[in-house]
Amino acid sequence: MIKGLIGKKVGMTQVHDEQGRVVPVTVLEVGPCVVTQVKTSEHDGYNAVQVGLVEENTPRKLSKAEVGHLGKSQIAPMRHLREFRLNEASDAKVGDQLSATVFEKTDKLTVTGTSRGKGFQGVIRRHGFGGGRMTHGSNFKRAPGSIGQCATPSRVFPGKKMPGQMGNKRVTVRNLEVVEIIEDKNLILVKGAVPGSKGGIVTIRKS
């Protein structure tokens, strides 16, 4: 059984549960997806299913390797491919269509996406530093402060919290509860926030 799909983040909204309470949800458009490759432990060393996201616009600028890989299975060009590992061999076949029916309302999902990029930021925004006194004549306001010693060890240790690129990283959020599934539109409403901006590609797996 395939445990995941590729989707897009539509945006956030809110719905009411059975008790009338407001629940913040993220709307995810999952699929439609197509099985592009089936891997087995006998042939590849492990069991997995590769899935591709079907898009309305024909993807461009695919590499020759991607075109050849999909052409071997007679699958239309697809830009987004993901692989889902399985504990045992799957009965799925190349060309099978997958939709939101893969998930159920009681499922807990793990969603992986790319967080929104925020550019080069200082230590106050990036790491939550307190900064110095904002008074007249203070030479220490939003600076990081001391980052090491001069004589020993005469270097800055790796991993030191300093200014730099913020966001635009692979982020995974676990145990997101499925609130509602709209099968005819391939939409899933999950409780809470999902990394990335509107229209961003996300990978959805069962936790």
Structure summary, number of beta strands = 12
The structure class reads mainly beta
Give the N-to-C terminal Cα separation: 14 Å
Oligomer status: single chain
Shape: extended
Question: pLDDT under 50 segments (min length 5)?
Answer: none
Approximate helicity band: under 10%
Output the radius of gyration.
23 Å
Mean pLDDT: 89
Architecture overview:
With 207 residues, this protein is mostly beta strands. It is 9% helix and 39% strand. The chain has three helices and twelve strands. The strands form three sheets. It has a six-stranded antiparallel beta barrel with strand order 1-2-11-10-7-12. A four-stranded antiparallel β-sheet has the order 5-4-3-6. It has a two-stranded antiparallel ribbon with strand order 8-9. The longest helix is centred in the N-terminal third of the chain and has 9 residues, at 64-72. It starts with a strand and ends with a strand. The model has no long low-confidence stretch (mean pLDDT 89).
Write the layout of secondary structure elements.
Elements: E1 4-16, E2 22-30, E3 33-39, H1 41-44, E4 47-53, H2 64-72, E5 81-86, E6 97-98, E7 108-114, E8 119-121, H3 123-127, E9 164-166, E10 170-182, E11 187-191, E12 201-206
Antiparallel strand pairs: 1-2, 1-12, 2-11, 3-4, 3-6, 4-5, 7-10, 7-12, 8-9, 10-11
Summarize the structure.
With 207 residues, the chain is mainly β. Helix content is 9%, strand content 39%. The chain has helices spanning 41-44, 64-72, 123-127, and strands at residues 4-16, 22-30, 33-39, 47-53, 81-86, 97-98, 108-114, 119-121, 164-166, 170-182, 187-191, 201-206.
